[in-house]
Amino acid sequence: MIGRIRLFVLGACLVASGFAQAQPDAFAAARARGELVVGVPYLAPPPAAGAKIRTPDGLDAAMTDRLAQSLGLPVRLVQLPQEQAAAALAAGRVDLVLADGASAQPDAVATQATGYAARPKAVIRSDTSLRRPADVRGRSVCMAEAASASRALAESWGAVVRTYRVPSDALVAVREGSCDIGLVDDAVWEPLVRFPEWKKFSSTLAADGARRERVWLLPASDSASRNWLSQEMRSWDRAGAWKAMTAKWARDVAFDVYLDQEVPDCHG
């Protein structure tokens, strides 16, 4: 009886750790290479020499970092349009691809849901009358260049769209009054506006647009990696990973905005 209990506890521990040790053949090419290479829809241009480092849009960087840590590997991101994912995976140029949904992928590509789904949500001054998407026609709406869903949604409202390299630049424009509305993922909106300095910018618009889930794409033939990744995503869900990552993103971006508005740029 005691032996069975020990086996059960051991199995539970392996599940909690994502089977990282139980499946050494998962992502074998990445292990042989010494790094995990992940294709992502967008990489912000690097900052100019001497410029402040800023948090990128979305959770792609956080997700890939966490996954690579579970594998015990460094990670390298490459910009890869979703329509090129199958060819890049087949050629071994990338080990994984993060995509905005899994539409129109061939049978050779497997899809693993991440559990992170979001849609654009507005950040607005609380003393404005903007409440519905119809109110936004002709008004300025700002977002990061990477936020393609936000841009498409704002264009459908008839807004004047302005994009910035990183989300904090768009939010600074909102805070300084040069932009009427900022758009971020609804998953990160709530932890952002909880900060006291964002209380005056905690209004929003009625929900609009489709919620889209980030998914992993990988070779369908690589069953070891598929099994490991499925277990890892379940482990993230149990551990509250999405809440932790969205809270950190909000904290980092709020700090970026603080630096831009309150701290002089020594290189400026």
TrEMBL record:
Source domain of life: Bacteria
Cross-referenced Pfam families: SBP_bac_3
Lineage of producing organism: Bacteria, Pseudomonadati, Pseudomonadota, Betaproteobacteria, Burkholderiales
Signal peptide location: 1-22
Record's keyword terms, sorted: Signal
Species: Achromobacter aegrifaciens
Protein name: Transporter substrate-binding domain-containing protein
Residues annotated as domain Solute-binding protein family 3/N-terminal: 35-253
